[in-house]
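Table 4 source record.
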Amino acid sequence: MRISEKACIDRGSLGNHDTCQKGVKMKRTLKNILVGLIVMTCIVTMGYQVTDAKKAKKVVLKSVSAVSANTISVNWKKVYGAKRYEIFCSSDGEGFEKIGSARSTNYIHKKLDLGTQYEYKVRAVLPKGKKTSYSNIKGTKTKESAYLLGLEKPYNQEGNCEIEAFEVVGERFGHGFHSPNWYDDGTISFNLHGKYSKMTFVCGMTTADSGDKDYEPEVKIYADGNEISNNIWPKWNKSAEKYSIDLNQCKLIEFDIPGHVGIGNIVVYK
């Protein structure tokens, strides 16, 4: 039953006037509380919107870290209302250039040069194409050297050439390749993406029968079509030797590998 002031006046002569007045006051109190809650909710919501709008003015970079010798991971905090993010990079103090965009709060930058300082900043793209100001700047430096097979994949492989670890007189070498049969040579080539000044590696004969101990194969290495190897003659039943060759920022490198010969631990340098 609804309680009103008019009903209380009409019933006052019946002795229920005080009860009706209490009901009216309670109704007014509940109404005021409800209105107050609605107003507070609006204020809090508007407060959050203002706070989020302020946050949207700038992206905050959390970390920039190397995840491999030539790969960097960039991470930042989420921005309210952002549709996507634009990532900018500067290498060795050069100007910033846009390198990509992301919808998440992470970007992986791949195939970078060795021994190079990379700096990053990010901005958010909001609805209707509006963009926030740039984030703070963070950076890191890539390693000075790395295993070639960790940076580049062979683009061409001919003959009997296997990419795997091998042994030379009981010593095991990884990150390399070899031709397991004396009668079947192999060739393996790389299109180099990085800028490399030199390369070091070990070379030796993997196995040989006693009747083949006079077999003396020659390893040849080419950079952009020009031979750069010099007197690489691995010997049967002898330890692997270490070599160093200048690459001079060449684009293409090719290894000619005779049978029973392995080349491993190939490291390239900035």
